[in-house]
Structures are given as C-alpha cells and as structure tokens.
Design a protein that fits this description.
GO molecular function, one term: ATP binding
Largest sheet: 6 strands, mixed
CATH superfamily of the largest domain: ABC transporter type 1, transmembrane domain
CATH topology of the largest domain: ABC transporter transmembrane region fold
CATH architecture of the largest domain: Up-down Bundle
InterPro entries: AAA+_ATPase (IPR003593), ABC1_TM_dom (IPR011527), ABC1_TM_sf (IPR036640), ABC_transporter-like_ATP-bd (IPR003439), ABC_transporter-like_CS (IPR017871), P-loop_NTPase (IPR027417), Type_1_exporter (IPR039421)
Helix content: 55-70%
Protein name: ABC transporter ATP-binding protein
Keywords: ATP-binding, Membrane, Nucleotide-binding, Transmembrane, Transmembrane helix
Structural class: alpha/beta
Membrane topology: Multi-pass membrane protein
Bound molecules: adenosine-5'-triphosphate
CATH class of the largest domain: Mainly Alpha
Number of domains: 2
Amino acid sequence: MIRLLKYAKKNQIYAYIGAVSKLIEAVFELFLPIFLARLIDRGINQGDTRYVLQMGGMMLGLSIAGFIFAMICQYFSSIASQGYGTELREVLTKKINTFSHKELDEFGPSTLITRVTNDVNQMQLALAMLIRLVIRAPFLSIGSIIMAFYISPKLSLIFAVLLPVFALMLGLIMWITIPLYKKVQQRLDDMAQTVSENMSGVRVIRAFARKRHELNRSTENSEQLSKANIIVNNISALMTPSTTLVMNLGIMIILYIGAVQTNNGASFQGEVLALINYMNQMLLALIVVANLVVIFTKSQASASRINEVLDTAVSIEDLPESSITDQLTDTQGTSAINFNQVSFDYGKKAAKALDIINFTVPVGNVIGITGPTGSGKSTLVQLIPRFYDVTEGSVTVFNQNVKNYRLKTLRNLIGYVPQKNTLFRGTIAENLRWGKEEATDEELYEALKIAQMDNFVRELPLGLYSPVSENGINFSGGQQQRLTIARALVSKPKVIILDDSLSALDYETDYKLRQALKKIKNASIIIVSQRLSSIQTADQILVMNNGIIENSGTHEYLLQESETYQKIYKSQTEPESIVLKEEKE
Ligand SMILES: Nc1ncnc2c1ncn2[C@@H]1O[C@H](COP(=O)(O)OP(=O)(O)OP(=O)(O)O)[C@@H](O)[C@H]1O
C-alpha cells in the first residue's frame, strides 16, 4: 500500500496542508475541557461573571477556529485524495493498455474494471482517512491522557486501568473481523464479475432463455456477499455497545471518586467534568483508530490487486531502441508476410494451436484462409500484428521480423478487422478516425466507399457526424462490420486482414467490397472465412485443420485435392447432402 503512495506525490502539498489543519483542530479540541474546568471552578463556583464570559469567549473562539481548520482539512484532503485517485486510475489504465492479448486473457475484463474503479476508490478513501485521522486520532488519545494527568494525576490513574481493557477489546474485535473483511472483498469481486457478465451478455441470456439461471447465479452471489457482510457487521456492531460500556464504567468511576474528592476538597467539580471529557475524547479517538485499521485492511486488499496489475510483466513490448527497424525500406518487394516454421500455444499447459506453419503472402496478393471451427485461423492472423508472439519460428512483414518493428509502426502497416469487433460511443467520424486522427472527411468517405458504406452514411441526416451508440447497437450487424472495415482502411494500411469480418454481409455487398479492396494498389489482403464464396477468387487459399495448414492452392486445385475443402464446399452448395449423410449414419 505504501508503494502506491508515490502516486500521491503530485498532490502531496495539499495532503500536508490537510493533515496539519486537522492537527491544529485537534489541539484546539484538546484545550476545550481545560477551559471548561476553569469556567466552572473559578468562574461559576466563585460567582466571577467576567471570568465566565472570558472563558466562554475563549471556548467559542477555539470552537470556531477548530471548525475553520476542520473545513480547510476537508477541502485539501478532498483535492489530495481525488487527485491521487485520478493519478492511480491513469497509471492503471496506461498499464492495461500495454497488455498484450495474453495478459488480457489472463485477467479477464471484469476484474480489470473492478480494479480500476472499486479498488482505486478504496485507495482514495484510505488516503482521505490517512490525511484526516491518522495523525489526529493518536494525537487526541495520547493528548487526552496527558491533559488528564495534568489536571489530576490521581484520578487519571483510572485511565491507566481502562486503556488496556479498551485496547484489548478493540484488538479482539479487529482480530476476528479483519480476515472476514478480506472475505467480503472477495465476495464483492465475485459479485462484480457476475454483474459485469450479465450486463454485457444480456441479449444472449434472453436468447437462450437463461434469465432464471442467471438470476439464480446472481442471487447466489448476492446471498453469499450478504452473509459475509452480516457476520462481519454483527461482530463490528459489538464495538459500539462494548466500548460505550467501558466508557460509561469509566465515567461512573470518575464521578464516584471525583464526588468523594470534591466533598473532601481535594478536587473541583470542573476538573471532574474535564476528566470525563478527556475520557470520552480518548476512547472515541481509539474507536477511530480501530476503524482506520479496518479501512486500511480493506485498502491493503485493494492495493495488492492494483499492484498485481502494475507488476504484471508485459509479454509483448518494443525491443530496445537500438534494435528497432522502424524504417520500412521495402513495401514493394516480393513478400508482404512470411511465416517460417511457426508454432504457437496459448500457454505452457495448452495444446499447440498452430504447428509448423509455413507460407508467404506476395505483395498485392489476396490470400484466403478457411478451415473448420477451432482449426487456428484467427490465432494465425493474430500473430501478424503481434497480438501474440510465436512460440517457435518467425513471422516477417515486408522481410522484417515483426519483433523488430516498433509496435505502433507494425500496427499502422496492418489494417486488422477482428472477428468480434466493436464500435464505440461517439460519432461515425470519431470511430473512423481511430486509425488516423487527422483524416479529412474526404479520406473517411474514401474508406467508407471501399467498405460499401458511403451511400448509407451520406444519406444519414448528420452524415459522418451521426451518433454511434455503445457497441454500435444502433447499426445492423452488417453495417457495423462495414464501419469497422472502413475504420481499418482509413490509415491506408499495406496489409489488410479481415478475420471473418464479412460474415454478416449479403453476397452482393461481400463481392463488391472484395472487388473494391482488390483495387487498392499494392495492398496485400488476408481474408479469413468459412464462406468459400468470400475467398474462392483469392490468389491462394490456405486450408487449416487442427492447427496445421493441411493444403493450399487455388479454389479449383483445392476442389480436386483437399478433402476438407471439398467438405466445406459441399456443405455450402449442397447442404442437404450433409443432412442426408448424417441421417443415414
Ligand atoms: N485466448 C485463447 N486462450 C486459449 N485458447 C485459445 C484462445 N483463443 C483460441 N484458443 C484455442 O486455440 C484454438 C484455435 O482457435 P482459433 O480461434 O484460432 O480457431 P478458428 O479457426 O479461428 O475458429 P473459428 O472459425 O471458430 O473462429 C482452439 O482450440 C481454441 O480453443
């Protein structure tokens, strides 16, 4: 947790001002009972009205000054803690943005969201409490004891007896509750994960009539969270009555002994009252300390989760500056992409997703990739922009190993349209400019034209500046696909990869789009598709099966030579033949 405090540095001056203001307020608070004692003992008891007014005025002054310093603290600690939260969120988001697909797969989106939101909020709260209470609470409890001894060393011995009893009680409650708070935090995480999955998958849940099942899952999570919270709250709730009991016991003893001593003339009424005040101050401050420990325990859990993200080694990064080959010398040469003996697995324990892959994409060629589901098509194309790194072998783009490129340069060379693509809330133009911020409207329309979307956008009342809802849900599946293709084309990439991104288009649009792509000068195109009509005119088609390239060649060649290709072809031209075959079997 302390490690993360370095992100509060920018706002540390506000934190110091806040803490010092709170300390000054505590000093004022500490002096109030003394003035009260004097007011009673010398003012009221001796009928000295002037003294009463003097002391009353002092007390009022101290209270007002305390209030002002408390407000100053509140103001500056808010600035410091909010600034800290903003800084932490920014650092975390930056780090997550450097993650390769491997790290993103390992964490999963829900937990990353919880870490950037809930965990950062918890840290923010911890800093605010640190500024407001960490100095003030111990100062008040120790200060109260000293002041009590100053007033009456004899009566203050009661403090010495009660203090350990009180500390023991708080310690016991904390000892039981702290592990439980950790459990609650874990349950909260499970809950956030379920809610996030349910919200993002609400349409699928409905489509599969899984509402009841998902509701049960949420209820179960919610019940577990509530159970854990009830246990911890019940135990924590003991804190108030038990501490009040000790406090009242202390007050009774002070009152009793104080009364006897006052009768004997050994003490004054005001002093007894001041002692009771100090007793309250001390014990309340100790309760605050106990609550602080709870807050810091929760924050410790949040801090470890934030640190886990910050400490994660990023598997795909730019090489040291000296080894980077950023200058592209040969985009007109012979080979746009080359896979040399490439193997890949998603983790040491996972089976090989790709096994000894060799192929070349000559500049300006169109390559089709097909094969049964799970055969490794998407995995293969994701190695080109280095979303994952090969386990063995090498991938080159324009004769340079992809690892030698600056990631930004490599990804600017490639227009990649993934299978699951997303549009973002904003306007069409904002979405399209992701590839090139300074692109003109003309350039955007150029890309839209290739994607067969220009007429549609021109006819919209707001044209390029029409709104796009979250995930682009105000567009049909096919329109979304065409917009995401246009987005990839705006930067005029030299390599275009369409990973099953034509699936929602009708045959005519699919055909026109591919024809328009072919006209882009020197662009090398890879089309991954199960639909053979989308790739049958390609210069070369790779047929994948079980992570290997089973066969490759033109459509005509594969129809003769590849059993897998024939099967796919048949399933699309004569689907009934497959049904009949299955029925016979
Ligand atoms: N992120 C991932 N983590 C672990 N394994 C994965 C991951 N993505 C894919 N795989 C596995 O790798 C293999 C190849 O998957 P891939 O997505 O490349 O197939 P595909 O041919 O593109 O399939 P489809 O046509 O269904 O999209 C599959 O066995 C799959 O389970």
